[in-house]
Specification:
The chain is of the alpha/beta class. The protein contains 12 helices and 22 strands. A hairpin with a 2-residue loop joins strand 2 and strand 3 (15-18). The protein starts with a strand and ends in an 11-residue tail after the last helix. The relative contact order is 0.12.
Amino acid sequence: MIREYKTIEEVAGPLMLIRKVDGVKYDELGEIELPNGEVRRCRVLEVNGSNVLVQLFESAAGINLAHSKVRFSGHGVELSVSEDMLGRVFSGMGAPIDGGPRIIPEASLDINGSPINPAARNYPNEFIQTGVSTIDGLNTLVRGQKLPIFSGSGLPHANLASQIARQASVRSDDETKFAVVFAAVGITFEEADFFISDFKKTGAIDRTVLFINLASDPAIERISTPRMALTAAEYLAFEKNMHVLVIITDITNYAEALREVSAARKEVPGRRGYPGYLYTDLATMYERAGRKMSSDGSITMIPILTMPEDDKTHPIPDLTGYITEGQIILSREMYRKGYNPPVDVLPSLSRLKDKGIGDGKTREDHAGIMNQLFSSYARGRDAKELMVVLGEAALTPVDRRYAQFADEFESRYINQGFYENRTIEQTLDLGWELLRILPRSEMKRISPKILDKYWPIEDTSDISQ
């Protein structure tokens, strides 16, 4: 029997204290019924004896302490899941907002999920093609990996997120088993409209589940949205054996909501006012990605976050970097040059890239050409900096070639645009084409066998030019 309580003691901002409550558990979902019949939702944050502290999903305005009633559901926040979720748009709390009918659920799952046993994890080792050269060619995404994108305020990370969601695919015969779960956290109405209309226009909506949380929505909903998305992903991956790519933007908005809730609870703040459990909280989301030995499905995650003041040492990117396997960094300098997507490839890293490339996965020359491009671009950047100080005449003929290579690499390899979808073969062939700007003798990162196959000995360059 569901009990109703009229023992509301106090309302302070988004929090409400209820006394003389029995049998209520942490994270339990509750409903507040106002005297006019309106029902608002809440979630249990703290239980202290018979006193319960809850957080409101909606506004506290109009709640009459003496005449409002509270009842608890006996379970936490749940998401109704079904394969019919594909092609649909939901709110941050899992309610359809695309005008379509409600989902007939095959199951209702707790959004907090359950952690994957480390002993039951399968090692990520299969290539995912995003169609973006700077990711596929240099910082390869592997199925089951967590690869965040570190951006800055005003940089086009939304366009890159949309591009990856449209273009990403697994290199297998069964494309129908690939799905995208896209969670937009704390975004503006214009951004939400951009994502929805872009997916519908390109047809990507058919294999995508969208969760949209607007900046005007309550902070507690912002905390639930990524978990809603991950619950849907777990169902599709581990129950329906699909390969699921989860894209969450923007993790910074999520962390800000967490800080807001922590401040309302008067908790002792940690670095820059964020709660001391920020690392643990982020890990409970990120570690839900991966592969299980008992399932053919997988969850690959690309969380996107904007670094406040472009600071990589800020707690959000800093802690994210500890948990995830690398990072793709967007550069303000590249963006000013007009290059899109403005990826800064040198500090970017995918720690699992070596596991997802090579013969049978991408192509036999991938590892060699990736290392050579990194090395050549780094030397080309150094040559360009030297040219600014000493002038071009002070450079050797080889260094002038490296400076030319760096310019061509940025304008042709990095600058691809948001609507060009390159296969991995096109990306690797473009890499070879750019490397031919340099003398063959400089190809020190590529094995002689691969070099002879893709760069015949008679096709050499004249250093003196």
